[in-house]
Amino acid sequence: MERTTDDDHWKEQFAREHERLIAALGEITDGGIVEHMEHVGATSVPGLLGQPCVDIALAVWPFPLEELALQSLASMGYELDPYFAGAPEQRFRHEGTTFRLYVVDAFSPLWMDYVLVREYLRHDEAATQAFSVRKQGWDSDIESTGYREAKRQWFDLLLVDAHQSWIEREHFAPLHHVAEELRDFTYPWHICGGWALDVFLGRVTRVHHDVDVEVSRADQLALQQYMTTRGWKMVTPFDERLQPWPM
After folding, report:
1. How far apart, in whole angstroms, are the C-alpha atoms of residue 4 and residue 35?
2. I need a labelling partner for 162 at 20 to 30 A (CA). Which of 90, 114, 128, 208 fits?
3. C-beta contacts of 12-15 below 8 A and 24+ residues apart
4. CA–CA separation, 35 and 234 (whole Å)
């Protein structure tokens, strides 16, 4: 089990497929369904042995994919894996190329888990080498039940270390990013949710998937205008969907 091309090749492959997928499914901020898309899996980590395949994680809403989205993927050559046909994720394999899709609910912690493991392996060479050695000992048939179960168990073990690595690496950095974004916003705003508890404690106790910011309802349009001028695209829940928030 080894890769046969360089890492730049896989980055280019992902970039091209990213464009095709966005063209087919659309971003939530433009009326589509994709909230996030990331290159994950072996080819996203330099030095990690694995199948020569580009794994792409998509966070979408609504989930599971509706018929129109399924048809769009089918027209691109993607076939739904019946083993992963519903919650908590749907997986697709491309019939003619080396692409796999991992589609999850935009609000699912599974999305963050894929990214956390990738970042942990990118930052810890010893963990990357250990994972490569372990993968060489597995069944080479990636469709076999034994391979899937072994990979799932190892992923769960990696996830524990990946969470701790994120806490140590990021610390309160996400809050600093928010403070920088809102530095010139002249209305009151507050950090709330889980991050507020960690601020009170003075330490990061867990991985946070996002940062909750509270503003007064009376100030919401001022916030919308402020963030839009900084290049943000905003959405709002409507009719059980996330829709672009018009100015």
Report:
1. 32
2. 90
3. 13/43, 13/54, 13/98, 13/99, 14/39, 14/43, 14/44, 14/54, 14/56
4. 11
Find out whether 29 and 228 touch, Cβ atoms under 8 Å.
no
Report, as ranges of residue numbers, the positions in the chain whose pLDDT lies below 50.
Answer: none
The residue among 55, 57, 51 whose CA lies nearest residue 5 is: 51
pLDDT score recorded for residue 180: 97
Counting Cα atoms < 13 Å in the Cβ hemisphere of 49 gives 13
Q: How far apart are CA 213 and CA 18, in angstroms?
A: 30
> Quick check: 117 and 162 in contact, CB under 8 A?
yes
Average pLDDT, the chain: 90
Give per-residue burial for 121-152: e unless 16+ CB within 10 Å, then b.
beebeebbeebbeebeebeeeeeeeeebebbe
| Per-residue model confidence as pLDDT tens digits over 33-85 | 999 999 999 899 998 887 888 999 999 999 999 999 999 999 999 999 998 88
Asked, as a colleague might, if the bond just before 174 is cis with ω within 30 of 0, I would say no
